[in-house]
Amino acid sequence: MRLYNANFSPNALRVRAVAHELGVELEIVEVDIRAGDNRAAEFLARNSNAKVPVLEDGNFVLWESRAICAYLAGIRPEAGLYPDGLKTRALVDQWAWWQAIHLGPAMQKLSFELFLKEKFGMGDPDPTVVEAERKATDQFLAVLETGLDDKDWIAGALSLADFYLATTFMYRDQAGISLDEFPRIAGWIGRLEARDSWQKAVAPLLALFA
């Protein structure tokens, strides 16, 4: 299987981490977004959205990171990352979509303003955006903190939802996003980031900002 990837992308990071957790080997093809490789006809034939990640499994092509992760989990169902139980799977889906719609956009916009914007020479932070997204981030972090009450993992056992959520936090230190008021989140992300699968997946990203 081949993964079209960009090392700085949180969406690609979650696919790499899930693949490592499952022991699924992927051939990584780096797509240089800044050079416009994602706009080349060859890439657009795989994903007309011009976005990474994209998975190729023989003649089967799949885009959208959550769909790719679910597909990989289906290859190794014994790992239990996308459980069969109706209620447990519903909880995994609940937190997956909550991350996609609520926490993810807020934290990613805040990280962009406070870190990536300067890193990529795109100007100074917009204080209006920073204020709005910091407020939204704090609101959603409080929800996650409550959701982790008496749990090591968000759906009870380690699942795809934990990896989806974790990628939201990938630039928290660089952006100065503190978890001091959210001890359950701090413990949870520490456990996730200590896993070998995460360490292997995040290594290319850390090399970018070394």
Automatic annotation (TrEMBL):
Protein name (Swiss-Prot/TrEMBL): Glutathione S-transferase family protein
Gene3D superfamilies: 1.20.1050.10, Glutaredoxin
InterPro entries named among the record's database cross-references: Glutathione-S-Trfase_C-like, Glutathione-S-Trfase_C_sf, Glutathione_S-Trfase, Glutathione_S-Trfase_N, GST_C, Thioredoxin-like_sf
Family: Belongs to the GST superfamily.
Top-level taxon of the source organism: Bacteria
Annotated ranges, domain GST N-terminal: 1-80
Keyword Metal-binding: no
Record-annotated GST C-terminal domain positions: 85-210
Lineage: Bacteria, Pseudomonadati, Pseudomonadota, Alphaproteobacteria, Rhodobacterales
GO MF term (any one): transferase activity
Organism: Sulfitobacter alexandrii
Entry keywords, A to Z: Plasmid, Transferase
